[in-house]
Amino acid sequence: MIPKWVKFAGVVLALVLVSTLSFAAGLGLRAFQSTEIRYPLGDTPEEHAETFRVFWEAWHLIEEEFYSPEGQPDSQEMTYSAIRGALVSLGDRHTIFAEPALTAILDEDMRGSFQGIGASVNVHNGQLIIYRIIPDTPALEAGLLPGDVIIEVDGQPVQGMELMDVITLIRGPEGTSVSLLIGRRAGPDSEREILQVDIVRRKIEHATVESRMLADGIAYLGLTDFNSPSASKVKKSLQELLECDPQGLILDLRDNPGGYLQSAVAIGSHFIDEGVILYERGKNDAEREYTATGRGLATSIPLVVLVNGGSASASEIVAGAIQDHQRGVLIGQQTMGKGTIQVSQHLSDGSSLHVTVAHWYTPNNEQIDVKGLTPDILVDVTAEDLVAGRDPQLERAQQYFQEELGRSARVH
């Protein structure tokens, strides 16, 4: 089981798993860097040899003496548990160990495509609730709807399971099938209907960016991930939207768990013409300043940023920079509070270790980690809103522009 502190309340199941390594809860992390293990397999640095002597003493005692009617413990699981135990002692929820199956999922997400069904899920009161269906995917074709509750996957109950464990159950090779038991309500007070939905998985290109024009000349740009292709997709979408001469722009970073740091800086620079995007502080008092590139496309258009508890990591970098520079208004819910950078170390058996190496701060030197960002306008979304297909946060953003544009018209 993946530890509880790795739970991420707004990721895309593989369903999508919106780029999970950002699993800052998300799992809240993100593989911003990737390196090889430092020591050759089997070697123990000399300075640690004596320290590890007691570990091996305990290990051999367990091997020789432990008895249980259920059998001898699996040595691989003992090894994984020992690693997890060491990480718990660090007191950092973002430094995590991922077994090979989870590592493969995280690597797949960062490449911008995956093999699954194409739905996004939130954890609400211990239940897995689908909140978004990706267009042109098996999930949509099978009739899944926002608000559906996933009860079982291939006959296995999932309530109370860790989110990443459920993701590994739902994802699988293209062409294979997965059976979901779904609970569905027609309305908040209606009885829940139980449905079995069989879905054939296939390869899904994660769109990452969604753009369109809304009513009253307002442009909408939704970003679900800061993976490798995100920056170029955002640039292309902004160019197309700006050709429509919009009166304002809504940047939707809700349930975006983050991604690559360089993508965050590149995308943030489209909205901030100059100045600091973030500060990064690491070991031995090292500090680095990241500034806007000066090549932004949307540095003056009226701007609203939508955020919620699933907005983490790179999302908080961009939203925090926009807020501190007073470039736009944040609407929604308190963000996750995942303001750290991890180095992704791939281990010899296909597992991986994700180690926190630095913390981020906004341009006003506000800590992101744990605290998160507080929106300028707080708007909640309930499970009933999802079932009814309502989006009160997006509606509030549109209302904000109506009020501001109306005020501007009266002044002139």
Structure commentary:
It is a single chain. This protein is α+β, with helices and mostly antiparallel strands. The chain is 27% helix and 26% strand. The strands form four sheets. Strands 1, 2, 14, 15, 18 and 19 form a six-stranded mixed beta sheet that branches. Strands 4, 5, 6, 7, 8 and 9 form a six-stranded antiparallel beta sheet that branches. Strands 11-12-13-16-17-20 form a six-stranded mixed beta sheet, with helices on both faces. Helix 6 packs parallel to helix 7 (261-268) and helix 7 (261-268) packs parallel to helix 8. The longest helix has 20 residues, at 392-411. It is globular.
Reconstruct the topology from this structure.
Blueprint: E1 31-36, H1 49-65, H2 75-88, E2 96-98, H3 100-110, E3 113-116, E4 119-124, E5 127-133, H4 138-141, E6 149-153, E7 156-157, H5 163-170, E8 177-184, E9 193-200, E10 202-205, E11 209-213, E12 218-223, H6 230-242, E13 248-252, H7 261-268, E14 276-282, E15 287-291, E16 303-307, H8 314-324, E17 329-332, E18 340-346, E19 352-361, E20 377-378, H9 383-388, H10 392-411
Parallel strand pairs: 1-18, 12-13, 13-16, 16-17, 17-20
Antiparallel strand pairs: 2-19, 3-10, 4-5, 5-6, 6-7, 6-8, 8-9, 11-12, 14-15, 14-19, 18-19
Helix pairs in contact: 6-7, 7-8
